[in-house]
Amino acid sequence: MGVKVGIVVREQSGENTLRVLRARSLVDRTLRIKRKNGFLTIPLNREVSTEELKDLNIEGEVVLEEFEEATRRPSLSESLRKILTVEEMSLIPRSYDIIGDVCILQLPEKLQDRRRAIGEAFLKSMKNIRIVLNKTEPLSGEYRVGEYEVLAGEGGTETIYREHGCVFKLDISKVFFTPRLSAERARVASLAKPGEVICDLFAGIGPFSIIIAKKNPGVKVYSCDINPSAYRYLVENIRLNKVEDRVKPYLGDARELSERDLKGIGDRIIMNLPMSSEFYLDVACKTVKDSGGVVHLHVFLEKGVGADEKYASIEESFKDLGCETRLLSSRRIREVAPFKYHWGFDIEVKPKK
Ligand SMILES: C[S@@+](CC[C@H](N)C(=O)[O-])C[C@H]1O[C@@H](n2cnc3c(N)ncnc32)[C@H](O)[C@@H]1O
Q1: Which of 64, 71, 88, 259 is most buried per CB count within 10 Å?
Q2: Dihedral, CA atoms, 104, 162, 146, 199, nearest 10 degrees?
């Protein structure tokens, strides 16, 4: 405890006042703000004159007050340095995923016996994280789901993730999801036009479908996934985001659906199954309208294969399937492993008469 200068303001204006004071580095962050009877007393670094308060548009009274020390959350590197050697520190992955209140690490073999302590360090230092997971097996199988172990925290692996004004409920141990496609989702959503019919063939829990629908009230989206858990979350996320009138979910194989419900209806086809999307080009041809449409094709490019070379083979396959194509754009979306990249091709596809 120590007597320091502070300012008393009404609680309603507290957030605003704090923003203004923090922007000018006037708040003493080592002390705890006091709250009493609808007023806040904010500890300051120095005395502030009445004129200064007037200039800052702050209504408050400068006082001398006893404040308690604020308990500061240790930074991640502080927490890790306490438990790891310098060599172990150098093995900590530079990136990790945060999905809602779940933090996902992928620790190297050499840190296996330190993994619980590392998980606790992440939990202690990261704000708003409830549980820390270690990815033990890469994405695999038709559903593209990985395996995870709990390193620290509790409450299960289901979480709520927010992106571009939408909310997504998901359980990473049962479905595919990555926050690393956020920019690509915003990009595709910005391309959709009113009246368009969009087919999201490998929709997962619905991030592309729902963000597009939310940003474009005039579109109709058909979303399908073969994983029953992903479908269950897709249905729930459609409801949570109030886009039931615009997004129709399907549980099943995109190939079968392209023969029935999705046949010849799409202006825009999303094919985010980079592992094997090229085996579904026939599905794109069947789903696209007779007048043509745009296919957003996701693929992986391994070391030594250029984007031009890849596109040439995609174009050839479309030709064999009886479709004309025109490449609109292409981009490297992210690195998924050393020298392995996730690419996106936007391709105009038109079935030949
Ligand atoms: C890479 S994930 C993409 C999910 C989603 N688009 C996203 O961005 O989060 C691919 C999804 O395709 C689904 N899938 C795989 N084969 C399928 C098929 N033949 N028909 C429909 N969905 C399929 C998987 O279950 C998985 O959820």
Answers
A1: 88
A2: -160
